[in-house]
Amino acid sequence: MDKAITISVLFTVLILIDIYIYQAIKTAFRNVNPKTKKYAVIFHWTIVGISSLLILLYNFAIPDLLPYSAKSSILVGLFIIYLSKLFGVIFLLIDDLKRLFTWLIKITARKPMPPEREGVKGKISRSEFLSKAALVSVALPAVTLGFGITSGAHNYRVRKRTIYFPNLPTAFDGIKIAQLSDIHMGSFFNKTAVKGGIDLLLQEKPDIAFFTGDLVNTEAKEVNDYVDIFSKIHAPLGVYSTLGNHDYGDYKSWPSPNAKKKNLQDLFEAHKALGWNLLLNEHRSIIVSGEEIALIGVENWGAGRFSKYGDLKKSHMGTEDTPFKILLSHDPSHWDAQVRQDFKDIDLTFSGHTHGFQFGIEIGDFKWSPSQYLYKQWADLYKEGQQYLYVNRGFGYIGYPGRVGILPEIAIIELRRGPAV
């Protein structure tokens, strides 16, 4: 009953928004061909009807008949529709506040106010102008977010950085590292485009490859359709991976604790099927020409609200005498909270997690995203003292199946021996 009441309230609010937008359509199209106005009204109420149906499906459909991917798509569609309409509502409120202000002056002055001039000889009234501006403001975010789905979701970018370390063993001078993060296989909708992204990585011919967590959204079975693509990732020194917050199945209601445990075991097997070496709070020695670096992989650990499974002390144990250390840790907040504080001998950390919010602006060295208000380190390379952190913008997406401004990434990091610059 509580759910029905909540949905009824939601419907009421959304219908009021739709009626508000309808008033703008009537005003904006009052001086155009009646047939054009009719089509605009039909289009508006058709979208309203489809939105209402989607809300009902999302909330009341039998779970087995509406899988996670479908529910996610519905939620994204509704988000785009009503976020766009809220932009329009802002312009309409300006007009209504103006009307209220005029009415208050009229009441206070006790004399009639001159009527608003209607459009004549190419001029339009203020109400008509604001109504048209409202409709344009509705269209802009819808078009932008739609473009982010059709173009930005798989518009992969290879981002290259070179980092110098005075303590890098000579045998590793010039080593090329490829990093992927946040694949979220359950969100993909274009297998051909995904394959193109992996082809870009392979063209770089990395010496070693890392994956820093969130292979799936929720369930290990999401991997099944993409094993043939991601298993092609090979490197002479191996492919190593770790887990992210989504990999543990924490965001799904499981029929039993054993079902959730089995899902995690299935995910471990999925990493094996891909040919990846999954590091679960442990480390590996990477040896070239008799020289060694330590690769440490910690399970998900962050300073925020996400579950903490990582044990860096355990992972680090046994690497004390290794001259150079690399850490794979999904959440970049781990760097400030623990790595830099207690493990100053970890030279380079690779993370992901933020996705760069899948929205923002990057022009040259300038970058902005809402992600920066949640994470101090949210994209690209950071340095504090003698320690470095690289935060990958992510290969996939979740929730909104697209990207605007912050594009999916394949990171190529070259390590060189020499003074830090």
Short descriptors:
9 helices; elongated; alpha/beta; six-stranded mixed sheet; Purple Acid Phosphatase, chain A, domain 2; 421 residues
User: Can you tell me the overall shape?
Assistant: elongated
Percent helix, as a range, is 40-55%
| CATH-level-4 superfamily name of the largest domain | Metallo-dependent phosphatases
CATH topology of the largest domain: Purple Acid Phosphatase, chain A, domain 2
Number of helices: 9
Strand content: 15-25%
Distance between the termini: 63 Å
- What is the average of the pLDDT values? 88
Poorly predicted ranges (pLDDT <50, ≥5 residues)?
none
Q: What is the level 1 CATH name of the largest domain? A: Alpha Beta
Explain this structure.
There is one protein chain. The chain has 421 residues and is an alpha/beta fold. Helix 1 (2-28) packs antiparallel against helix 2 (34-60), helix 1 (2-28) crosses helix 4 (126-152) and helix 3 (68-109) packs antiparallel against helix 4 (126-152). Strand 12 and strand 13 form a beta hairpin. The chain folds into two domains: 2-150, no CATH class; 156-417, Purple Acid Phosphatase, chain A, domain 2 (4-Layer Sandwich), CATH 3.60.21. It contains nine helices and 14 strands.
Quick recap:
This protein has 421 residues and is α/β, with parallel strands linked by helices.
Write the layout of secondary structure elements.
Blueprint: H1 2-28, H2 34-60, H3 68-109, H4 126-152, E1 157-165, E2 175-180, H5 191-203, E3 208-212, H6 227-230, E4 239-242, H7 257-274, E5 277-278, E6 282-288, E7 291-297, H8 312-316, E8 325-328, H9 333-342, E9 348-351, E10 361-363, E11 366-368, E12 380-384, E13 387-391, E14 409-417
Parallel strand pairs: 1-14, 2-3, 3-4, 4-5, 7-8, 8-9, 9-13
Antiparallel strand pairs: 2-14, 6-7, 10-11, 12-13
Helix pairs in contact: 1-2, 1-3, 1-4, 2-3, 3-4
